[in-house]
C-alpha cells in the first residue's frame, strides 16, 4: 500500500483542527479506560484522601445523569471544540422554526461510527444551535453504562450529555413551559455496524420506545438527518452472517454496545489511521410532527405515529440528498 504523507507546509489552523479531532477520537476510545485506571491507582496506592471523598460523592450523585445532568458552559466553550467543528466542517441546517413552548424529541440519523455530527452540534457552544433555535436547551442522550464510569461521567455531563434511560428522557421532556430537546440517536450501536460510506441503512422499524414516550409527554417529534456522517470512516467488511458481524452482534447483546472495526486517515499521512476524513457534515433538522399528549397510548396509536415519523424521515432525506452529493437512485433502507 502506497502511503500518502501530509504536506509539511500545512497552515497552523489545520494542524490545530487535526489535534482537536485526535483528542476527541481518543477521548471516545480511551478516556473511560484511563479514568478507571486513575481510580485503581488511587486505591492501590491508598490515596484515600482522593478516592474516599470522590466515591462518597459519587454515591450521592449517582442519579444526576437521569436528572438533567450537570453541563458546564466553561467546558462547552473550550476553544478545542471550535477547531473540532471546523475540521470537517460541521453545519446545522434548520428547515422550520420550532415553538419554544413545546418540548421536542430530535431523532438523529444515522449513527455513523462515532456520532460526530450529534456531538459537534449539540455538545459544544460553537455550532449554530443557539442562533437557529433560541430559547432551547438540547440534551444528547447516551447509553446509561457510559455514566457508570467514574470521572468519565463528569466529562460527558459537562458537555451536556445525559442518560438515554426512560427516566432520563422523561425528565428532559417534563419541563414546564417547554424549551427542552431530547436528542436520541435512534439506531444505536446496532446501526453503527452498518456505517459504511455510501450506505443509508437505518435501524428504526423496531424502535418504538421513543414514540410511546413522545405520546406520554406530548413531545413533538423531529427527524434529523446528518449527511456525511457515514462517510467519515471506512469499516472492515462485515456483511450480515460473516464471522466478524456475528462476533460484533454477540458483543452488542452482552455489553449493550459494540465498536466497529473502523479506519480512515492518520495524523501525518492520509492512507491509514483512526482520524476521520475531512468530509463536511450537514445535519438537517426536519419538520416537527405534532403529538397530542396521551397518558396511556394504545399499540395502534404508537404504530400510527411511528409510521408517520418514518415517512417524514424519508421525505427529509429525499428533499435534501441532492444538495449533498447523494445520487438520485440512493434511498433510505429501514430495518
From TrEMBL:
Task: Describe which pathway this protein belongs to, using the record's wording.
Answer: Lipid metabolism; Glycerolipid metabolism; triacylglycerol biosynthesis
Q: Which domain of life is it from?
A: Eukaryota
Q: Name one GO cellular component term.
A: endoplasmic reticulum membrane
Q: Name one Pfam family in it.
A: DAGAT
Which top EC class is given?
A: transferase
The answer on whether this UniProt entry bears the keyword Glycoprotein reads yes
Name recorded for this polypeptide: Acyltransferase
* UniProt source species: Prolemur simus
Q: Which gene encodes it?
A: MOGAT1
